[in-house]
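Technical annex B. To support the medicinal chemistry partners, we prepared a structural model of the target in complex with cytidine-5'-monophosphate, based solely on the information shown next.
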Amino acid sequence: MTLIGLRDDSVSVRVAVPAKINLALAVGDLRSDGYHDLATVFHAVDLHDEVTVRPAARWSVRTPGFSDVPGGLKNLAGQAAKALHALLTSRGSRPTPVAIEIEKKIPVAGGLAGGSADAAAALVACNALWGAELTRDELHEVAAGIGSDVPFALHGGTAVGAGRGELLSPVLTRMTLTWVLALADSGLSTPAVFDEFDRLREIAATSGGSSRSATGADPDSVVAALRTGDVDDVAAALGNDLEPAAVSLNPALRRTVRAGAEAGALATLVSGSGPTVALLCRDPDHAADTASRMAGSGTCRTVRIASGPVPGARIVGRGH
Ligand code: C5P
């Protein structure tokens, strides 16, 4: 039996992990496990949380300055660390508990997978701290058990996602996409947005319309556009089936989306389950101009300029 991770709180591992946007999100049927089948294109952008783990006598998760982030093991980062701990324990190791500290830059409940990103970061950090040397594939398995977006946060880049989002195929592209992210005052709950999606689809079906979502979000078109390297093609291909549901739950988003178009963005897109609105721009100058127009529009809390793709969770510091 190996004892891994010294009870020495001067030892630490720090991991940076990016936010994600879904360039296309097509929602399929509700499955018997309560999840929906998805066809999506994930895209990691350079808005990062940083997660630091150190050995401790007791498990803890702290997010200084954020009272609305779940603490302790309600936090996905804590759940991820515990899941990895359980796996290693089942293999005969004895990793120490850890204290996890999260420095949040990714908005909470914003549709940018911040909680999932923190879980991925905790896995990479604990894997290193405990010297466990799990491969990326093994970490992927643990990540998929924590949440649908967690595997992508491990890998980063741009990737097609299938299943409930956990089955990933990388998309190789030389394109850098520049975004303005319009952040909202309050968050949206992912399960609530999926429930609203089901409700709207049911109404459409019973009123004789298509039972499929009408947004026509199409991952294949996005991948084809990324291959052409033409940002206007990418702009034309973006789409999100969850957007009508997010707007239905937070009607103020309609104004944000309209303001984005008026500010000159090439395309506007609610990110994931929202409410963050992503505005695609031609280049960094165009993004700076669009960001200042959006900031003055009064339709969002604040704006961030971001670009992608960027790598997934990676170690940025170790303390001794
Ligand atoms: O996987 P994760 O825990 O992040 O998902 C949160 C919730 O979002 C799920 O409990 C489910 O209600 C909804 N969801 C879904 N279909 C997916 C992913 C998430 O219905 N593919």
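Notes passed to the chemistry partners:
The pocket of cytidine-5'-monophosphate is lined by residues 34-36, 38, 116, 147-149, 164-165, 190-191, 194 (CB under 6 Å).
The chain has a mean pLDDT of 93.
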